[in-house]
Amino acid sequence: MKLSSFFVGAALGAVVAAVPTPAPLEPASAASTLVVELRAVGNALVEALITNTGSQDLHLLSQGTFLDASPVEKLTVLTSTQTKPPFLGIRKRILTSNLNSTAFTSLPAHSSLKTRINLAALHDLSPGGHYTVHTAGVISYTLSTSATALRAAAYKSNTLTLAVDGAAAGAVARALKRRAAETLLKSDCGRNAPAIKSALATCASLATAAAAAASSAPASKFASYFRNTDAGTRATVAARYAAVAAECGTTAGGATSMSCTDSWGGCEAGVLAYTVPSVNAVVNCPLYFTEFGTVSKVCHAQDQATTTLHEMTHAPGVYSPGTEDNGYGYESVRELGAEMALGNADTYALFANAVYAGC
Fold first, then answer.
1. What CATH number belongs to 34-171?
2. Which residue intervals of the chain bear CATH 3.40.390.10?
3. What are phi and psi of 277, to 5 degrees?
4. What pLDDT does 2 receive?
5. What is the pLDDT of residues 172-219, one digit of tens each?
6. Is the pLDDT score of 5 beyond 60?
7. CATH 2.60.40.2970: which residues of the chain?
8. 3-state SS track over the chain
9. Does the structure show a pLDDT above 50 at 32?
10. Any idea which architecture 190-357 has in CATH?
11. What's the pLDDT score for residue 190?
């Protein structure tokens, strides 16, 4: 972890190699009132139709999903060789408590909403060719705008096959734009630097303990987060935690850089921190410092240290491939299938919290 002043990193346009990807992931819960249908409406342009087939109105937590207006990974895109093209957006940790109505998108019973997603603005599709596109995961929701407890609904779309014109896709403006270099040169955490150093040290401690617990925790406890308890899953989880512990444990060198300046414009309402995986950059938002302390002993609560841990798992430079945001909060994590849980950032943050808090 490089704590510069606070960073002048690589350009966003840096080439990121495609990495092998497993088969499309399945959410654990097949029963859901949410139906997601994808259809192609242009070159690399996809329309998602989301339908609430149930009898109750839903208020969907939009951030980090296909409903999010910010440049998050809204759909899973695979090349013809089943690798992921470079993703050029952000992944983030969002607040899951004390939410107001602006955090939600309302979807009344027996109704639908549409959103359009330009994949070329979020992924490097300039090579062109055939790509498959789908989405699956868990979305948080409430049944009323005044409700405080989040529920979770699994969803899974159909799979599209797109023939993409690479030249046209390469000409599309990127959704994520880095701000002026002179702003970055002034980037400085100032009075918040001690809080970051404390969070990094605690992140290293939490990740070290979680790595040990990944190998030794009772099957029932481990399975409540990662589903599978086989030796391979435990080894993968332990290895990722060990890599995070090493990264959080250094403030000189390392694979990532950290800033307190919103260099890419991702610090919207409700966002604690975000990562730009293409350049292994982590940004702590103002809410990171005002909402929580360093670490919490409350089961499945959020804090600065587990937020840093969450973001570190996103960075492929720490452990490749980096995690995604398949679901936020414990209720959502409980709905994920084994592969999705293994690749989900909040699963790691929540398990580390559980080890520390004795959940």
1. 2.60.40.2970
2. 190-357
3. -60, -30
4. 63
5. 999 998 754 433 333 457 889 899 999 999 999 999 999 999 999 999
6. no
7. 34-171
8. CECCCCCCCCCCCCCCCCEECCCCCCECCCCCCEEEEEEEEECCEEEEEEEECCCCCEEEECCCCCCCCCCCCCCEEEECCCEECCECCCEEEECCCCCCHHHEEEECCCEEEEEEEEHHHCECCCCCEEEEEECEEEEEEECCCCCCCCEEEEEEECCEEEEECHHHHHCCCCCCCCCCHHHHHCCCCHHHHHHHHHHHHHHHHHHHHHHHHHHHCCHHHHHHHHCCCCHHHHHHHHHHHHHHHHHHCCCCCCCCEEECCCCCCCCCCCEEEEEEHHHCEEEECHHHHHCCCCCCCCCCCCCHHHHHHHHHHHCCCCCCCCCECCCCCHHHHCCECHHHHHCEHHHHHHHHHHHHHCC
9. yes
10. 3-Layer(aba) Sandwich (3.40)
11. 84
Please tell me the distance from the alpha carbon of residue 59 to that of residue 97, in angstroms, as a whole number: 15
What length is written for the chain? 359
Annotation says 311 is catalytic: yes
Do the Cβ atoms of 264 and 283 come closer than 8 Å? yes
Nearest by Cα to 36 from 124, 136, 120: 136
The answer to whether 273 touches 91, Cβ cutoff 8 Å, is no
Q: From the candidates 247, 311, 324, 339, give the one annotated as an active-site residue.
A: 311
Instruction: Determine whether the annotation assigns residue 314 to a binding site.
Output: yes
The label of the residue with tokens 């797109």 reads: 162
Closest CA to 348 of 233, 266, 263, 251: 233
Q: What is the pLDDT of residue 252?
A: 75
> Is 134 labelled a binding residue?
no
d(CA 284, CA 304): 9
Q: Strands 45-52 and 111-118: what pairing?
A: antiparallel
Answer yes or no: is 310 a known binding residue: yes
d(CA 109, CA 105): 13
- Return the pLDDT at 26: 42
**How many alpha carbons lie under 13 Å from residue 88 in its C-beta half-sphere?**
25
pTM of the model: 0.88
